[in-house]
From TrEMBL:
Lineage, highest ranks first: Bacteria, Bacillati, Bacillota, Bacilli, Bacillales
Full protein name: Beta sliding clamp
Keywords of the record: Cytoplasm, DNA replication, DNA-binding, DNA-directed DNA polymerase, Nucleotidyltransferase, Transferase
Principal subcellular localization: cytoplasm
Assembly and oligomerization: Forms a ring-shaped head-to-tail homodimer around DNA.
Gene3D superfamilies, A to Z: 3.70.10.10, DNA Polymerase III, subunit A, domain 2 (3.10.150.10)
Domain DNA polymerase III beta sliding clamp central: 136-249
Domain DNA polymerase III beta sliding clamp N-terminal residue range list: 1-123
């Protein structure tokens, strides 16, 4: 293999794919980055047992010249650091018969010991036939994932809850996640030629990485689902994630369908009040109390102090209520919504609080289980 490639574009590719290489990776081949030169393209790949990120550098202009095809795996973080500190301009990469990679720039020549690419995890051709293929607007998919993925569990006690449920049915894609205390769900319309159903579970942490490739509001991300993986492709980058095996719990019975009271309130002022109140909230627990036209937020930490804040209610239906919630969870929800106003639905002192963005009442909702307190 021998190529000339622009430092800037190679560094950009490395910075993207290295998100798939954990800092404490103990398997040498998985601590490496796969460099593959094809006739008119350079493919840079990093992978672990759960996620693969692939970046394609096309040979469309003077930023890449392939003189000889080939491939090699080299230590990822050393290689990235070398490229980052190289002189600006073009870099020459050349692999010899002993798999040693020479990195040459204007004044420097560095050699890295490489590994045989045959041993590197491959994107299996047998899985190239997708059971489901969708094209979704970048911004829509990005917003949906960010709104939902934060509710996934971080505990491996129930692996399925560390993932986000993707359920495609009747041209609609529903994303749902829960950690047993909070739940987030959003449903988006997706065009697809065939009438079919598909239900998978995707690791939440991999989805957060996939979001980072979804740039450009008017562009689309191609989503492909195979028997074992889901792939997101956009802007020369592909993120492939393994699926979580298991049955996602049915959540229909935990979603309240009636409510005692509801209020409509401005998202920004409520977020600021929640963040202020959570500062002195013991174990992040804040109390919400309504009056005729005001939502009061209260918190305290013994021997430190207490906070009381107020936000004006724009509209109210039903009786006054008091409920204690995790303030950090409430703030996470408010951060993730683009709606200027939200609706809070009270379903009982020890029943989940339902939160809807006002501009998306029918397809997006969040649940937070209340916390039992002395008051």
């Amino acid at each position: 293999m021998r190529i000339n490639v622009s430092k800037d574009i190679l560094l950009k590719a490395l910075q993207q794919v290295l998100k798939a290489v954990p800092a404490n990776q103990r398997i040498p081949i998985l601590a490496g980055v796969h460099i593959q030169a094809l006739t008119n393209e350079l493919i840079v790949t990093a992978s672990n047992s759960s996620m693969t990120i692939l970046y394609r550098i096309p040979g469309e202009d003077s930023s890449l010249t392939v003189q000889r095809i080939g491939e090699v795996v080299v230590p990822a973080r050393y290689f990235c650091e070398i490229i980052r500190k190289s002189d600006s301009g073009m870099i020459t990469l050349e692999v010899d018969s002993s798999l040693r990679l020479s990195i040459s720039s204007e004044h420097t020549q560095i050699r890295l010991c490489g590994m045989d690419a045959v041993d590197y995890p491959a994107i299996h051709p047998a899985e190239n036939h997708a059971a489901l293929k969708l094209a979704v607007n970048n911004q829509l998919l990005k917003d949906s994932i960010l709104q939902v993925a934060g509710a996934a569990s971080s505990s491996e006690h129930r692996p399925v809850l560390t993932g986000v449920s993707f359920q495609y049915r009747n041209h609609r894609l529903q994303l749902t996640a829960t950690n047993g205390v909070r739940l987030a769900s959003r449903t988006i319309d997706v065009e697809h030629d065939a009438e079919m159903e598909r239900h998978i579970i995707v690791p939440g942490r991999n989805l957060v990485e996939a979001v980072k490739i979804m740039d450009g509001e008017d562009r689309t991300t191609e989503v492909e689902v195979t028997n074992r993986h889901i792939r997101f492709t956009a802007n020369h980058i592909m993120v492939q994630s393994a699926l979580i095996e298991g049955e996602y719990p049915s959540l229909h019975h935990v979603i309240p369908h009636t409510f005692i009271s509801e209020i409509t309130i401005g998202t920004a002022p409520l977020l600021k009040a929640v963040e202020r109140t959570t500062v002195l909230a013991s174990e992040s627990i804040i109390r919400l109390e309504t009056t005729a036209d005001t939502l009061r937020l209260l918190s305290q930490t013994a021997e430190i102090g207490d906070i009381e804040d107020e936000v004006s209610i724009l509209e109210k239906n039903g009786e006054d209520f008091t409920i204690s919630l995790n303030g950090k969870y409430v703030a996470d929800i408010l951060h993730g919504t683009s709606s200027d106003f939200i609706r809070l639905r009270f379903t009982g002192k020890m029943s989940p609080m339902v939160i809807h963005p006002l501009n998306d009442l029918s397809s997006t909702f969040f649940l937070i289980t209340p916390v039992r307190t002395a008051k």
